[in-house]
Amino acid sequence: MITDADLNRFKILNVTADAQVGGEFTQPQYWHDNDHLLGVDLANNQVPIKSLKDAGARVTLSSDWNVSSLNPFIAIQNAVIRTPQNISLEEAIKAYTINGAYTMRQEDEVGSLKAGKLADFVVLDKDIFAISSNQINQTKVVLTIFDGEEIYKK
Asked: Which fold has domain 4-110?
């Protein structure tokens, strides 16, 4: 939970905001289930990834296992469709890749495809930029390359 007054502090302090939006309970239709615990103001804007992004904060996405799925495509879909606190597909992918690498102090090694970095990447069964946002969660990995070596192939 983040108050509006604290949103700008993330950028000022160079703090990464890590969000877990994979669980159904993070969807806006459930926010007011917690009014009695949080108060209406905090409950009305849970996991404010758009507000954080707009304030210039670095956002990462991750799983809050075991209350949500480990499948990143569920969280990516939720991050894109959870209006009013949604972000673009490009921003959601960046939150899982280069922003996560930065947070681990490994942005020079992983997080993006670039000469000199480790060859860690996955090949998907569909172009998630070409499908409906509501279908991203159905995406499957068909090939995984880790440190330049094939470690999974469907």
From this structure: TIM Barrel (3.20.20)
Task: Output DSSP code: residue 71.
Answer: -
**17 three-state secondary structure:** strand
Place of tokens 């942005």: 107
Q: List Cα–Cα distances, 87 to 39, 50, 68, 105, 116, in angstroms.
A: 25, 6, 19, 24, 30
The tokens of 8 are what? 């700008």
Which residue is listed with tokens 């999974």?
152
3-state helix, strand, coil in the chain (%, to 5): 40, 15, 45
Domain spans of the chain? 4-110
Give the pTM: 0.91
For residue 136, what pLDDT is reported?
A: 98
Cis peptide before 72 (omega within 30 of 0): no
